[in-house]
């Protein structure tokens, strides 16, 4: 069996696993002339040497780092020296046959090329692939589907999506979320502790040892992964920190991680329900609130391991043992637990907590190849395009909602119009019946010749007898006769002649002078014949025939029949006087000589008695 060494590089810690327990060191490199390159805390490894920090995040940057003595150093060369020093410390007896280095998955291609150029004999893989390889071996992952990996590191959180059916090939690119990290959580816990120290009188004594207090806050955070409360030992006092207080600090930035993962799924066209598994690694994966919030947000179990902070190095060692020609379905059995070596300066104390070294346990078990089939892990998941929805059945036109609605409205309008017209026709029939009860009075037309034309006015001429002396004749002489006035003709309608009163006989007059003949009366035009009233027949509308539609019967509300008014007798029309036409102007006929009519004997008027004159005393006797 080949001797393999698995290494992982992080911004906070460096991990190496060979044939024994993992070796964890801080990402600090101390270079001195006496000890050479030493990885770990500078105060313990090589006092007085050049100390380099934060060089892991500078890998691939062409700008070099400046040491305390003014010398410049490339970040990728510093990483290569750190890996070499860690390899000598992890395997002091002999150099391993295969070395696999797991680097952060969010590094750019330029950074990966720089690492490969600085360490040509080391195989470089992303830490996401190494972590999933170890978790696939134990406790196992689905063979198909999309798997989401959340790596909670010291300087940020990395989110990665892989396709299990394609050999855990990365989907898209890894997303880095820097607002949730171990360093930020340590800083918030330190701020919370300092706020409590300000409230106590002896709390100001702990401000001088701020670096030591920060380490205590990190250790207390790791202990709260298994305990509900812990105590921070600071000079002069003791501060109690509970898990509820830690959850209050972690809750808000953790919500940002969930939103970032949802956005990553959305940009790659994956629905959250399509996730086959959700895996958490890194130091922050052991915080109980992290597992609780992720499981509640995505409705699936969260897969993690007790030694999540070193799982990338374990996977790198498995990749080295397996070799490049082995398939992805044949992997090595992951060790149940890895002991922590006690040798080497700066080794972190053993503890099964996040950001700490693992529990002490037995040696690494001997590699036994095992053939893993697809059905030995979780049930298979098949992702395919959803079947095309069948085309909806064509609905008959008479079953459509719009047609039914319009038909109902049309029937309602037609019914209402029919009711209105029927009521109006009933009123017209009633009016026609009432008027027909009274027989029209037809006035027969009269012929113009049959009309009674009034006779021309007669003129009576009284001729006084010249021999008859009038009253007072004896006293005065008769006056000279005045010329007779011209006769005046008056045309008017006359009533039928009444019985004349008997008149006294008038002595026949002397031969009168002939008078001019009266003009013939003008003929009056005949009045127009009166036309009988024309009866108006009642209006009858033909029935409207509607097509029978197979729709639910629509019964419009039937109004209660209103009582029809009893017909009132129409009063007989009073005969209006016909306008008399104006007489047409006619030419005055020339007078013609008519034969003199025989004068009728005029009764002589009875002389009125007159008073006898008083006798004048005379001598003569009165005449008989």
UniProtKB/TrEMBL annotation:
Residues 474-504 have a biased composition (Low complexity). Coiled coil: none annotated. Residues 445-624 are annotated as: Disordered. Keywords: ATP-binding, Chaperone, Nucleotide-binding. InterPro entries: ATPase_NBD, Hsp_70_fam. It comes from the Bacteria. Pfam families: HSP70. Transmembrane segments: none annotated. GO terms for molecular function: ATP binding; ATP-dependent protein folding chaperone. Residues 505-616 have a biased composition (Pro residues). PANTHER family: CELL SHAPE-DETERMINING PROTEIN MREB. This is Molecular chaperone. It comes from Mycobacterium syngnathidarum. The lineage of its organism: Bacteria, Bacillati, Actinomycetota, Actinomycetes, Mycobacteriales.
């Amino acid at each position: 069996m080949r001797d393999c060494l698995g290494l992982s590089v992080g911004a906070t810690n460096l991990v190496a696993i060979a044939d024994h327990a993992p070796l964890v060191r801080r990402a600090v490199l101390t270079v001195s002339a006496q000890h050479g390159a030493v990885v770990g805390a500078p105060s313990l490894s090589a006092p007085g040497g050049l100390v380099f920090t934060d060089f892991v995040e500078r890998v691939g940057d062409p700008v070099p780092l400046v040491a305390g003595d003014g010398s410049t150093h490339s970040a990728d060369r510093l990483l290569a020296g750190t890996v070499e020093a860690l390899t000598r410390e992890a395997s002091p007896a002999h150099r391993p046959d295969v070395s696999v280095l797991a680097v952060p998955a969010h590094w750019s291609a330029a950074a990966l090329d720089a690492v490969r150029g600085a360490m040509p004999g080391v195989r470089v893989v992303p830490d996401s692939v190494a972590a999933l390889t170890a978790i696939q071996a134990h406790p196992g992952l689905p063979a198909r589907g999309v798997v989401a990996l959340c790596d909670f590191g010291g300087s940020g959180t990395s989110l990665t999506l892989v396709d299990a059916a394609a050999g855990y090939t990365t989907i898209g690119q890894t997303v880095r979320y820097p607002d949730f990290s171990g360093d930020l959580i340590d800083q918030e816990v330190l701020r919370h502790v300092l706020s409590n120290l300000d409230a106590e009188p002896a709390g100001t004594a702990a401000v001088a040892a701020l670096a030591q207090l920060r380490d205590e806050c990190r250790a207390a955070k790791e202990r709260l992964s298994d305990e509900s409360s812990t105590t921070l030992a600071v000079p002069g006092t003791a501060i109690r920190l509970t898990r509820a207080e830690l959850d209050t600090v972690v809750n808000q930035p953790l919500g940002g991680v969930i939103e970032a993962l949802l956005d990553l799924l959305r940009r790659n066209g994956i629905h959250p329900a399509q996730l086959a598994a959700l895996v958490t690694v890194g130091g922050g994966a052991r915080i109980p609130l992290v597992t609780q919030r992720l499981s509640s947000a995505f409705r699936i179990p969260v897969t993690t391991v007790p030694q999540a902070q070193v799982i990338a190095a374990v996977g790198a060692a498995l990749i080295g043992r397996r070799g490049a020609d082995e398939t992805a379905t044949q992997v090595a059995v992951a060790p149940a637990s890895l002991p922590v070596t006690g040798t080497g300066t700066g080794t972190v104390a053993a503890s099964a907590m996040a950001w700490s070294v693992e529990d002490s346990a037995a040696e690494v078990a001997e590699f036994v190849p095992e053939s893993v089939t697809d059905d030995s892990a979780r049930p298979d998941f098949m992702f395919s395009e959803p079947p095309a929805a069948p085309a909806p059945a064509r609905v008959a036109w008479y079953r459509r909602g719009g047609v039914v609605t319009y038909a109902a409205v049309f029937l309602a309008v037609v019914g209402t119009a029919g009711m209105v017209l029927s009521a109006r026709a009933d009123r017209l029939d009633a009016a026609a019946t009432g008027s027909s009860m009274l027989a029209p009075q037809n006035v027969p037309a009269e012929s113009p010749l049959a009309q009674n034309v009034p006779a021309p006015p007669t003129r009576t001429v009284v001729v006084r007898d010249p021999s008859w002396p009038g009253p007072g004749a004896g006293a005065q002489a008769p006056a000279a006769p005045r010329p007779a006035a011209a006769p005046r003709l008056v045309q008017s309608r006359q009533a039928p002649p009444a019985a004349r009163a008997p008149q006294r006989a008038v002595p026949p007059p002397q031969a009168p002078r002939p008078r001019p003949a009266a003009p013939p009366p003008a003929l009056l035009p005949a009045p127009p014949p009166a036309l009988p009233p024309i009866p108006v027949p009642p209006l009858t509308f033909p029935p409207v025939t509607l097509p029978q539609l197979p729709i639910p019967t629509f019964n419009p509300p039937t109004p209660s029949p209103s009582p029809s008014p009893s017909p009132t007798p129409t009063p007989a029309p009073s005969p209006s006087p016909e306008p008399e036409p104006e007489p047409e102007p006619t030419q005055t006929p020339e007078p013609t000589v008519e034969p003199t009519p025989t004068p009728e004997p005029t009764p002589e008027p009875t002389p009125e008695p007159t008073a006898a004159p008083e006798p004048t005393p005379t001598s003569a006797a009165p005449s008989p």
